[in-house]
């Protein structure tokens, strides 16, 4: 399938433009000659936008910044004016929070509501692409076994997450459900959602706060030196996720949800992709931690033992065929993604250089 043709005739809005996934989306749009509208909380903070400005300088496209607050109703009106496509990527992805309602649920839910409601008020908007997650499909790997054919599909919704259990997954679930509720109550624009698994790979600049960087930092700083758990996960390259968004935004027939996950794997196996290049210089784990040990130390590691039981040594399985067939994705090799991410993190001082 050919790459989608980006319509650069009208401006394109990207929320969370300074973020990890959004940065690669913005790069593709600028290289295609588009005008990108980037609503951010502090438009005058050049340190936050430096990497985007550098790309814009060398690209035929243009980027414009607007002051906006995700939780403030009507805050996106100026930035969205005249836009034909809206990419809504802004949503917290972190395990470091004090109040899950305030730090996760409210930004995800109310931010989605504010952005999509504004889209319905902006007559030029014809397509809205929301960055959801596989977290809106499942909480635990045991749910893969119960899914149709033993694999998660776009027809499956997360029914197990809550404010008290897997609140991040809950935030993504309620936000995506709200997106579909709003979309189904209007006929001006079409909603398409992208549902990635764990996103890895290099950033285009800065030091992203995405949880995936925290996980890889733990691999590189020796936290798993005595053994990494075989925690079943899906993994996908950030550039493939960005390409999925571009396809969702500009392919005429794109619609619905799209599981965007390149590899069914586990945390230990992911770490082993780094061994050939970095195993002698960094404390990359060399063995898998047995499940009984992970279960034993779970409370000290901030994990519930029930979570360990349902996810460690339990495979993650997801069907990515729709993303390949409808969006034309060709997923990068996991080893390439991990090595390029690790190299990026070394150069940006996530851990000492060997």
Q: SSE layout and pairings?
A:
Elements: E1 12-15, H1 20-31, E2 35-40, H2 46-57, E3 62-67, H3 77-80, E4 85-88, H4 100-121, E5 127-131, H5 142-146, H6 167-184, E6 190-196, E7 198-200, H7 211-220, E8 228-229, E9 232-237, H8 238-250, E10 256-260, E11 263-266, H9 267-272, H10 275-278, E12 288-289, H11 291-297, H12 305-311, H13 321-326, H14 334-347
Parallel strand pairs: 1-2, 1-4, 2-3, 4-5, 5-6, 6-10, 7-9, 8-12
Antiparallel strand pairs: 9-11
Helix pairs in contact: 1-8, 4-6
Structural notes for this entry:
- By secondary structure, this protein is of the alpha/beta class.
- It has one domain: NAD(P)-binding Rossmann-like Domain (Rossmann fold), CATH 3.40.50.720.
- Helices cover 40% and strands 15% of the residues.
- The protein is built from 14 helices and twelve strands.
- The protein has helices at 20-31, 46-57, 77-80, 100-121, 142-146, 167-184, 211-220, 238-250, 267-272, 275-278, 291-297, 305-311, 321-326, 334-347, and strands at residues 12-15, 35-40, 62-67, 85-88, 127-131, 190-196, 198-200, 228-229, 232-237, 256-260, 263-266, 288-289.
- The strands form three sheets. It has a seven-stranded parallel β-sheet, with helices on both faces.
- α1 (20-31) crosses α8 and α4 runs parallel beside α6 (167-184).
